[in-house]
């Protein structure tokens, strides 16, 4: 779908420290890594900010760390 492609093209994941992956496929892969490391993860939306065409979401992830995650 053209709308999804436009959104995915501009999608960025930010993490502390430093920038995260860019693009829909890269962000999905990042979430797959997190899900594998925290299989019982629960994500809670903390803050949502909208600035024109941009949307930012700060979320809290809670879960049991049972697998590898970035070494």
Outline the structure in words.
- The chain has 71 residues and is an alpha+beta fold.
- Helices cover 32% and strands 37% of the residues.
- The protein contains 2 helices and 4 strands; from the N terminus they run H-E-E-H-E-E.
- The protein has helices at residues 2-10, 24-37; strands at residues 12-14, 19-22, 42-51, 54-62.
- The strands form 2 sheets. It has a two-stranded antiparallel sheet. A two-stranded antiparallel ribbon has the order 3-4.
- A hairpin with a 4-residue loop joins strand 1 (12-14) and strand 2.
- The longest helix has 14 residues, at 24-37.
- The termini are far apart.
- The relative contact order is 0.16.
Major β-sheet, in short? 2 strands, antiparallel
Instruction: Give the uncertain stretches in residue-range form.
Output: none
Derived structural class = alpha+beta
Percent strand equals: 35-45%
End-to-end Cα distance, whole Å, is 36 Å
Brief overview:
This protein has 71 residues and is an alpha+beta fold. It has two helices and four strands; from the N terminus they run αββαββ.
Which terms would index this structure?
32% helix; alpha+beta; 2 helices; globular
Topology, element by element:
Blueprint lengths: L1 H9 L1 E3 L4 E4 L1 H14 L4 E10 L2 E9 L9
Antiparallel strand pairs: 1-2, 3-4
């Amino acid at each position: 779908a053209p709308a999804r492609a436009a959104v995915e093209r501009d999608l960025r994941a930010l993490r502390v420290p430093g920038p995260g992956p860019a693009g829909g496929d890269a962000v999905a892969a990042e979430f797959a890594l997190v899900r594998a490391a925290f299989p019982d993860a629960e994500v809670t939306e903390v803050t949502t900010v909208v600035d024109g065409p941009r949307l930012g979401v700060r979320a809290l992830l809670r879960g049991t760390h049972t697998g590898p995650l970035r070494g």
